[in-house]
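call fold(seq) -> tokens
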Amino acid sequence: MKLILLGPPGVGKGTQANRLKTYFNILHFSTGHILREEVKSESEIGRKAQIYLDGGKLVPDSILLEMMAQRLSQKDCMPGYLLDGFPRTIPQAEGLNQILDQIQHNLNAVVSLTADEEELINRLVLRGIDSGRSDDTPEIILRRQKIYWDQTAPLINYYQKSGLVKEVNGIGEIPEITERIIKVLK
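ret:
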């Protein structure tokens, strides 16, 4: 099973990714995690990325795509994986398609977790209060929501053209949402 998980900040992508990884016995890839590992190992890609990170800049798509190409072509990816946080833009999705063609992988589905924006903002504000996360203030939440809707949400239309999108209501109890996702994937 090879999946992409999309959804706005606060919809529970990370939580669901961990549950789906276990259920389907597949790998869970967060680009942030892979990037941190590359930097930590001081690989060639890690050194390239570090230059941008040190300057407070976004790592360019070319480096992210090179990193993903290397990781997805490894043997442990053959049974399946779930991509969480990648792709984030149409150019990244196009680059990912080229990578998947080269390594002869086919996506099974793009799971789009949906939720009311106001509900998500309330959820994130509460999470910030409970966890003390500095990135869960109303101002930052609204900025992250806007970035998602401007840059990432267009991926839903992009992948709908391929018939890969499975929309799932992301509001409810965690196990209930997991069951909804599994149901649309079977």
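The longest strand covers residues 109-114.
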